[in-house]
Amino acid sequence: MADTVKVSCYSIVCWLLLFGTTALGQNSEIPQPTPESPLTHPSSSSDAEVRPDISTRSGSDDFEHYVRIHRTGGLSPFSKIEWEIIVRGETPIAKHAKLMVGYDEPLHKMVLLTAEEFSEVWRKIEQNDGFILYDVMDPAQALSQPTYDVEIRRGEMKNSFRINSLSRESDVRYREILHAIIELVTSRAGTIPFRNVFYDVGSMGWVDLDARPRAWVIIDDRPTNEQTPLFTYELPAGKHTVRLVAEEKGIDRVYEFTVQPGITTILNLDLK
Asked: Would residue 134 count as lying in a domain?
């Protein structure tokens, strides 16, 4: 009886192997992977029309379109400064945040952007090859200068890079992209200045100072211990002097400027 059961089981297994495999080979198709469509680099031509594509996956928190700049290090009362342009639903948003040293909760501001403003940012990124830029880190500036970490994503196109010698970098594409994003976010969302408690709130203003080539900044005969670019530096309203010094290039210039209460004064100076 046991031998009969063994023979029957053996016969069934053989039948399954023979006919089952044959049937699988005739009727089943093994899906083959299909190659993804190659990504093409966005046109860098200034004449190319850039249409705002600001849709995201429905119900997803993973933004498909964003630009993020995180600044860390350097001489600043803030441990991190963030400028972001993201798309939530179909709405582009500018977000500005600063994290104080020793605090867990950041100060932040957020505002809606128009489709035209959103398109202009992408036009600037594409014109300056933002999707192919790479890290530019100067070890000699690691402690004294801030590091900018940049993330860019538009649909399936992604890139990230970091730079810590923005003023000295000869490739102007980095400056063009960072300045376009920072200026748009701060102009729309507003600045978040460091409060100087020795002055009344209504009597203060700010200055954004950039100069090329890079120089040390001395304001009202007092060293700031910072080099250009200098953002949201708080000053009492009124007239001031700024001295820019780059000894290795023989530059020592003095300029006058006026700060209005509650307003950011922007200075872009060519020292050449």
From this structure: yes
Question: For the whole model, what pTM was predicted?
Answer: 0.54
Structural domain tally of the chain?
2
Q: Which of 268, 83, 142 is CA-nearest to residue 255?
A: 268
Q: Residue-wise pLDDT tens for the chain (272 aa)?
A: 444 444 444 444 444 434 443 333 333 333 333 333 333 333 333 333 333 333 333 333 456 899 999 998 876 667 888 999 998 878 899 999 888 766 666 778 899 999 999 999 999 999 999 999 999 998 887 777 789 999 999 988 999 999 987 877 889 999 999 989 988 998 888 777 665 555 565 677 888 888 888 889 999 998 887 888 887 788 888 999 999 998 888 899 999 999 988 778 888 888 87
The CATH number for 257's domain is 2.60.40.1120
Q: Is residue 233 situated within a structural domain?
A: yes
Nearest to 249 by CA among 222, 226, 224, 270: 270
Helix-, strand-, coil-residue percentages of the chain, each rounded to 5: 25, 40, 40
